[in-house]
Structures are given as C-alpha cells and as structure tokens.
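Whiteboard transcription, Tuesday session. T.W. wrote the structure tokens on the left side:
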C-alpha cells in the first residue's frame, strides 16, 4: 500500500453479485484511488434480480473485524451500509466513537433491497435521533427519509435529521417535476440538480454514491465537493452499460480539496 494513499472503511453486507454492498464499496474506493478496507455485517443470498435472504454477522464479530484493521491502518471516514437493526447500529457506533473518536461515520440507511426485499420498516424515534447525533452524514433517498422520520415530505424529514447530523437527501422531485438532491451541511440546505437516466437503473447505485462520498472525504475534499464529485462518479456508473450491474471505471480525478 502506498504511504500517501488514504484509507476508507466499509461496514456493509456481502452481495455475491458484487453489484451492491461491501464489494461495490471497495470497487468505488479503489476507482477513486483510496485503499478500501472491508468489514462484513451480513451475508446476503442474491443477484441483481433476485433476493433470497440474509444471514446477519453477530455484533462482536463485526467489532473484531474493525479492531484488527484499526490496529494497523489509519482511517478517518467509515461508511456503514446494511446493518441488522437500529439497536445493533447504535451499539456499534457508540463503541466505535468511544474507541476511535477521530472516526467520522457516513450511514447509508438501506431499508429495501433493489430486488424488493424489505429489511427495515419501523424506527424508534429516540433511538434513531441518538444514532444521528453520533454520525457525520446520513445519505437517505426520499422514500427512506420519509419512512425513517414518519413524514409525508422528504425535505421536511431531512430538515429534522439535519438538526443532528449532516444529510445528503437523494432523488427529490419538486412540484414542477424537477429532480435534485439536497445537502444539509450544518443545517444549511444546498440544492444540487440531478439528471434522470431512464433505462439505466443500477443495482447498488446508492452504495456507490455513499462510498464515493466517503472516498472523496478521505482524499481531503470538503463535504459539498465530495458530494458533487460522488454524484458525477455515480452518474458515470449508471451510464456504464444497459444492464443492472454497473462498471467501475477510472475517471479524471479532481485536484481540488
């Protein structure tokens, strides 16, 4: 490993198709010239079209994976994807913040597999807010934000979340059918226009976006630029082919931080 290359860690599920989860995160890290460290939180039985089930990794085994990596490697940003439930997530984050206070956590709240399997439906509000207060960034799409905060409007849901952490709200559509993402940084909303690629849906695109943000932050970009560049990377990923499994390609990396 290069002495100058930054590290980023993914705590996520193992998807055998490599389209989503920990393998997609590692591909994204490597494409963005960040060394990817992986901690498995679940083993899923799926491909890009079909989801058969999931086997959860016990919390103590997740923590052991983290411990052996953190002993050797310097990590500032950790992306968390698929996790068993809010109780496990809260215990994990609380433990990590106590042992590794310098680490900043990015949570991509996966509620539903792209093949249709539902992971989480109900959220205990106080526990959720406690989790949000300990993390750096959450990256829900509009449907996830509404479900998590029990709100009819995703922007209002994201505003509530932004009282506790930074929020990158994906895939919002306004009354004029304009598509955009919204970054709430320190409570201030920044709108980012989005394009819709009809016919170019990709399994794991949310994983790719959140891990690209983590990689960009690890390389020293500020949060706004990290999100903008992650959107650009994900857009290229979506355009990479006509199937559900996207291709990770080297792109011209920005030099600004």
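and on the right, the sequence the group agreed on:
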């Amino acid at each position: 490993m290069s002495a100058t290359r930054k590290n980023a860690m993914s705590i996520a599920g193992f998807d055998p198709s490599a389209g989503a989860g920990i393998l997609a995160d590692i591909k994204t890290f490597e494409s963005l010239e960040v060394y990817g460290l992986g901690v498995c939180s679940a083993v899923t039985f799926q491909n890009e079209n079909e989801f058969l089930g999931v086997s959860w990794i016990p919390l103590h085994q997740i923590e052991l994976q983290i411990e052996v990596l953190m002993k050797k490697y310097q990590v500032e940003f950790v992306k968390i994807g698929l996790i068993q439930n809010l109780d496990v997530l809260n215990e994990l984050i609380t433990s990590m913040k106590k042992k590794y206070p310098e680490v900043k956590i990015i949570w991509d709240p996966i509620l539903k597999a792209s093949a249709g399997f539902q992971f989480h439906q109900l959220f205990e509000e106080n526990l959720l807010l406690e989790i949000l207060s300990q993390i750096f960034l959450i990256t829900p799409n509009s449907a996830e934000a509404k479900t998590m905060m029990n709100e009819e409007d995703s922007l209002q849901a994201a505003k509530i979340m932004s009282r506790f952490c930074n929020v990158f709200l994906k895939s919002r559509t306004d009354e004029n059918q304009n598509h955009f993402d919204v970054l709430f940084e320190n409570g201030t909303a920044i709108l980012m226009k989005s394009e819709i690629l009809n016919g170019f849906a990709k399994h794991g695109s949310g994983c790719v976006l959140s891990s690209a943000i983590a990689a960009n932050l690890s390389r020293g970009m500020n949060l706004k630029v990290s999100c903008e560049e992650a959107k650009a990377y994900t857009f290229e990923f979506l355009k990479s082919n006509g199937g559900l499994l996207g291709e990770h390609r080297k792109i011209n990396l920005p030099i600004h931080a």
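Someone added at the bottom: The radius of gyration is 17 Å.
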